[in-house]
Amino acid sequence: MESVSFFVREALRTLRRNAMPSFAAMVAVLVTMLVLGVFIPIVQAANGAANSVRGRVLVDVYLTTGATPADVQGVRTKLDGVSGVGKVEFVSKAKAYATESKRDPEAYALLGSNPLPDTFRVTPKNPDDLTKLKDSLLQVKAGDPRIDSIRDRRDDTSKILQATKFVKITVGVLAALLIAASVLLVANTIRLSLFSRRREVEVMKLVGATDPFIRWPFVVEGLIVGTVGSLGAVAILGFAKVALLDPLANDFALIAAPRTLSFPLLVLILLGAGAAVSALGSVASLRRYLRV
Amino acid sequence: MGANFVRAMHEQISKSQRRGLRRRAEDVDDSGREAVPESAAPAPRMPASKPVVEFRGVHMSYPGGTTALDGATFAVERGEFVFLVGQTGSGKSTIMRLLTKEIDATSGTVRVAGRDLAGIDRKKVPYYRRNVGVVFQDFKLLPNRTVYDNVAYALLVTGHSRKEIRRRVPDILRLTGLATKLHSYPDQLSGGEQQRVSIARAFVNHPPLLLADEPTGNLDPETSIGIMQLLYRINRTGSTVLVATHDHAMVDRMRRRVIELESGRIVRDEATGLYTRDENTREFAARMRGDFPAGPEL
Q: Which end of chain B has the smaller Cβ count within 10 Å, N or C?
């Protein structure tokens, strides 16, 4: 216990002595954690969107307009026999008309009659096998006059998937750079405090302090820098959430997007990351510059 | 393993040493001189079983090819006060650094209390060092800590409890004549006082072996005598003291064993020839100052 208080006191003493570099490292950690804190939810929201799109990956099989219920039954049996088919959902003319006309009542009111064909929505067992499924369905179509056309919605989905991928890569690179910068700044701070405490280190070695005893104050110092930095980021994020995000969430569905992690969990992650970053920086410096 | 060795080393000496130390500490007033003349109590010099320090054919070359020690062989018995003399570069400091295991001998064996230093695991070195007090020419005090804290620091970083520190530090500061300077910072002290602090720090653990590398190198002759007197007092509590110096006048007056080095070789080892009888520290100081030049020799 006394050792712990000694480590903390020594660490604080050095922090006071090296106020500027410590502050710089603290701010670096703060910015990094701020960026992580903003982008983790964004990436998650994007991922959620991508996943829901991916879930909607399917092939539409349109029947000819004059298809009878017997035709429908026949085509369904055929479709069920195709390999790679996960789920086949039948959307009748009437049902399609009902949903579509609800979306745009005026246009459908003008049409008067129902122009929509009967449709099967075929979901592949594995979303990635969409092309294969489409090919086999096209083969089915070739020998079946009851099927009018086959279409997938790949264009939409691939765009969304691409966008999320882009967001993820950008954020990943940004986060990696910022984390590297923070680690280096913390390492630099520790290096400076090693320099300013070289007399203490010398005396400690002289009188027989153990290596861990010599090292711990520096690690504690790094941890303080990291923790204070992340706490600052958390405070800013918390403020932003309460002051900006929560009032807006009622108006914009995207902000209230489901499947982003809860704020307390985010705080924990940020604090953990801050501590990890600073510990990494301290250890890097100690390894390099402290020969005990 | 290392810890056991350390404990054994301590036990061999500590009892009588502590007793002597406490008694002596009480005799000393703040000026650093004895208030009451001592009886001529013999220093606790135990029967020599193992030498405290033993060098056998020690060679030491630094990277780059400089040979610092060339076949040094000598032994120092428990309770001895030994001078290492020689010019700069003759190998005195190398011997000191070998004894603190800051460096390892290229060949030959260095033993302390019978233990081969080469066999001490790197992790155990700190525990070994707790049994060797070291004093330097440049004091190596922490400038932003008070005298008390400087000495307490040595105990703090070796894991002593606060209670223990509160008990021990005033004791050692009284012994070294610093009781009134407790709250001064090093830069408020004279050179001699700073060296006393550094000796207090080196001795606060009551190490069986005390090394002093040019302890008076920065000090004027009168102050040097005070420092030597203090080292002698520590020696009389039972600790073995090894002093490296090039102050020939001092060495000649002290009449203790002298080991002279010249470019890494031992060229003179006058063991007991010039030994005086046991004298108390005041007689010692008087002789050092040359008050009665003949010296109370027997």
A: C
Q: How far is B215 from chain A (nearest CA, A)?
A: 16
- We find that the CATH architecture of domain A58-152 is 2-Layer Sandwich (3.30)
CA nearest A2 in B: which residue? Answer: B161
Domains of chain B by start residue, with CATH: 2-288 (3.40.50.300)
Angle at B114 between CA B113 and CA B118, to 5 degrees: 105
d(CA A31, CA A22): 14
Which chain B residues contact residue A208 at CB under 8 A? 126-131, 158, 205
What residues in B contact A211, CB-CB < 8 Å?
A: 123, 126
Token pair 């001699």 in the structure block, residue = B192
Give the span between the Cα atoms of A286 and A284, in whole angstroms. 6
Q: How far is CA A175 from CA A36, A40, A137, A256, in A?
A: 7, 10, 44, 24
When pLDDT is averaged across residues A150-160 and rounded to a whole number, the result is 71
CB atoms within 10 A of CB B19: 13
The number of angstroms, rounded, from the C-alpha of B75 to the middle of its chain's C-alpha atoms is: 16
- The residue of chain A with its CA nearest to that of B124 is A210
The answer to whether the beta carbons of residues A279 and A219 sit under 8 Å apart is: yes
Distance between CA atoms of residues A146 and A141, nearest Å: 8
The structure tokens 């009449």 sit at B255
| Strand-by-strand arrangement of the B240-245 sheet | B132-136, B209-213, B240-245, B81-85, B257-262, B265-270
For B132, B141, B197, the CA distances from B175, given in Å and listed in that order, are 19, 18, 11
Set of chain B residues whose Cβ sits within 8 Å of the Cβ of A3: 159
Select the more confidently predicted residue: A194 or A52: A194
Predicted local distance difference test score (pLDDT) of residue A252 = 59
What angle (nearest 5°) sits at the alpha carbon of residue A202, between those of residues B66 and B160?
A: 135
Do the Cβ atoms of B95 and B84 come closer than 8 Å? yes
Segments making up each domain of chain A, as ranges: 2-53+158-289, 58-152
